[in-house]
């Protein structure tokens, strides 16, 4: 079964836990990864890995170096991802378990965290604070967010929480070649 069909099925099954009905576009994936330094022996954590569009791109960029942990709450999507990417540590877990997941895999700090988490994840857990604590001082956190929804209460809360957890928060230009249009929030300077 195609990734798109599986994603759509899983969205229908649990719409608050699956962020979208369509896979991220190449343009969005490129924008999500652009702020990160991915050379050398980096530790990269992916939150909300879904069908693996970002996983594919991260593996290409890492070129067999570093460590890549993909966290996906949906067991169907996590199993498909683990099968496709044996070099990636795929963990079927809630992003709220990020500190435990890293500890269980012998990781002290991540150099980069890439997130495609839906707003429901932010409502259920302090994702920005967890990410800031998991990152090295020079680490970067990126989060895809839908354009046009930035004035809604969940989006405003997400931005407030990111500003509280990081010293720097910027946004990419709108990525019109994504359905729906999106942008990337880029958080740096994690606060202890």
TrEMBL record:
<dbReference type="InterPro" id="IPR029063">
    <property type="entry name" value="SAM-dependent_MTases_sf"/>
</dbReference>
<feature type="domain" description="Methyltransferase">
    <location>
        <begin position="44"/>
        <end position="139"/>
    </location>
</feature>
<dbReference type="GO" id="GO:0032259">
    <property type="term" value="P:methylation"/>
</dbReference>
<keyword id="KW-0808">Transferase</keyword>
<keyword id="KW-0489">Methyltransferase</keyword>
<dbReference type="InterPro" id="IPR041698">
    <property type="entry name" value="Methyltransf_25"/>
</dbReference>
<protein>
    <submittedName>
        <fullName>Phospholipid N-methyltransferase</fullName>
    </submittedName>
</protein>
<dbReference type="Pfam" id="PF13649">
    <property type="entry name" value="Methyltransf_25"/>
</dbReference>
<dbReference type="GO" id="GO:0008168">
    <property type="term" value="F:methyltransferase activity"/>
</dbReference>
């Amino acid at each position: 079964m195609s990734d798109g069909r599986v994603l759509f099925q899983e969205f229908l099954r649990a719409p608050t836990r699956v962020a979208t009905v369509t896979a991220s576009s190449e343009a969005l994936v490129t924008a999500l990864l652009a702020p990160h330094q991915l050379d050398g022996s980096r530790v990269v954590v992916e939150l909300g890995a879904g069908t693996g569009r970002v996983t594919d791109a991260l593996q290409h960029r890492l070129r067999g170096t570093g460590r890549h942990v993909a966290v996906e709450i949906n067991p169907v999507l996590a199993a498909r991802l683990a099968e496709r990417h044996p070099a990636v540590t795929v963990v079927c877990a809630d992003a709220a378990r990020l500190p435990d997941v890293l500890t269980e895999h012998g990781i002290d700090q991540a150099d980069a965290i890439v997130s495609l988490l839906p707003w429901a994840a932010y409502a259920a857990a302090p994702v920005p604070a967890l990410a800031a604590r998991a990152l090295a001082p020079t680490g970067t956190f990126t989060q895809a967010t839908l354009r046009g929804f930035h004035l809604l209460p969940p989006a405003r809360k997400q931005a407030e929480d990111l500003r509280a957890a990081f010293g720097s928060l910027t946004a990419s230009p709108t990525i019109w070649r994504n359905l729906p249009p999106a942008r990337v929030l880029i958080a740096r300077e994690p606060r202890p």
